[in-house]
Amino acid sequence: MDLITHVLIAYLLTLGLVGFHVQYIAAGALAGGLPDADALLFPLARRWPIFSHRGITHSLLGVTVIAIGGALIAPLILPGSVLIYFAVFLLGGVLHILLDGFTNYSVPPLLPFSPKRIAFDAERAVNFFVLIFSVVSMYVLLGVERNVVALDIYWASIYFLSGFFALYLGLRLAVRLWLGRRAHLYGEFRYIVPTENPFVWFLFGESRDGGHLRRSLGRYVVGRGLQGPYTLDIPLTGAPEGTPRAVTSAAAALEQSFPLLAREPAGRMGRMAEETHMFARADPTMDGGWIARWYSIEFGMLGRWLTIEVSFPPGGGAPRVDRKFRRIAMPWKDAPSSV
Predict the structure, then answer these.
(1) Which of 101, 144, 123, 130 is nearest to 9 (CA)?
(2) Using one digit for the tens of pLDDT, what is the confidence trace for 279-315?
(3) What are the angstrom distances between the C-alpha of 259 and each of 83, 251, 265, 324?
């Protein structure tokens, strides 16, 4: 979940629990976003992966250590109870872990005792529309209304925003649980992936049959049913390294690009790509070559998708691998729905 939404929800919850005590509200809101400061630890993460983004700072131990430090330092800045400071810092940190675990990007709550990561797949890691709503809400609360409007009006805004997030997250959770019980009825789907729209979800499956890998993708729209499933059959032989064959068909483009895809995430895209599910399409190019586009169904925004493109020159030769956000003609475009 994005940083602004983390801070806003922590602000709302802290205010609701402790009332208008500026020092505690500020501490709770700060704690709601503080775990994401691990992005500043990237020099350490190169040597110790535990300090990578959504690593130790996104664990119960990590937020407890942060809460202890905050409780000791905060009273030196704004007077207050050490115990209350500790409570609101811990509340904000635990809330951060819960909200991130609610998304499709996993967190390790028991690190360093257990490396197991948890992701509930009920919301996008970054939902552009929620981000914009949170930015506008923060501006209204802290820039337009605070110390300007009557207290009753300010509380009305707090109740409205709290109710909005409760309903929104509740809707996400309800649909996710409902699909979790019914996904198997639509095909061999193992994974449920949220989109930016709480009424639109992806269903994804993968199976191996001999020398082929089959991936299945469905697009579920609440109230309309399933579009798909769409299947992708990939031969697992691939081209021997160093001896690329000339690509003359979509099937050959997918076959030869898949081994490159397996090496690409670790080198250029990090854990984000390693945790994603990818579907593909292959198309001829104007110069007679082929291009295979592998796009992530988790990481998309405003119609653009995180994509690994493997371009094959005409007549053979080494393929070129690139990464970008781009628009792709999805298989469900203009397809009928089925229930």
Answers:
(1) 130
(2) 888 889 888 889 998 888 888 777 788 888 889 988 7
(3) 54, 14, 11, 19
Retrieve residue 56's tokens: 């130790």
pLDDT tens for residues 11-33? 999 999 999 899 999 999 999 99
Sequential DSSP letters for 236-297: S--PPTT-PPPP-SHHHHHHHHHHHHHHHIIIIIHHHHHT--EEEEEEE-TTS-EEEEEEEE
Number of Cβ within 10 Å of residue 42's Cβ equals 11
Which residue, chain included where needed, has tokens 């690509």?
Answer: 247
In Å, how far are 94, 283, 289, 290, 312 from 286, measured between CA atoms? 53, 10, 7, 9, 12
CA 77, 13, 91: angle at the middle one, nearest 5? 65
pTM for the structure as a whole:
0.85
Number of H helices, E strands in the chain: 9, 8
Query: SS3 helix, strand, coil % of the chain, rounded to 5?
Result: 50, 20, 30
Query: Of the candidates 116, 22, 100, which has an alpha carbon nearest to the alpha carbon of residue 58?
Result: 100
